């Protein structure tokens, strides 16, 4: 059993990275960072952000999920998994 586990993965042709941190086999932090989007979760709850030029998802366009737009960035809440 590993007490502390940390791993960095390269994603999307090295323009982004994914990070995972586990403590006693419990996931404490998971995140993905990129130039145009990213998300993170702390103990299962998190935020997702993306640049406006990436466009809105179906659920965002038709009001099924709420988002906050600050300048050119769109921010959404990620509920507990």
What does this structure look like?
There is one protein chain. The protein is mainly β and 81 residues long. The protein has one domain. The chain has one helix at residues 58-61; strands at 4-11, 16-23, 26-33, 37-42, 45-51, 68-70, 73-78. Strands 1-2-3-4-5-7-6 form a 7-stranded antiparallel beta sheet, with no helix packed on it. The radius of gyration is 15 Å and the shape is globular.
Order of helices and strands: EEEEEHEE
Strand proportion:
over 45%
Computed CA radius of gyration, to the nearest angstrom: 15 Å
Estimate the helix proportion, in percent: under 10%
Number of strands: 7
Shape: globular
Model regions low in confidence, pLDDT < 50 over at least 5 residues: none
> Total domains, how many?
1
| Mean model confidence by pLDDT | 83
Based on secondary structure, the structural category is mainly beta
Task: Provide key terms for this protein.
mainly beta, 81 residues, 7-stranded antiparallel β-sheet, globular, 57% strand
Concise synopsis of the structure shown:
This protein has 81 residues and is mainly β.
Walk me through the topology.
Elements (H helix, E strand, L loop, with lengths): L3 E8 L4 E8 L2 E8 L3 E6 L2 E7 L6 H4 L6 E3 L2 E6 L3
Antiparallel strand pairs: 1-2, 2-3, 3-4, 4-5, 5-7, 6-7
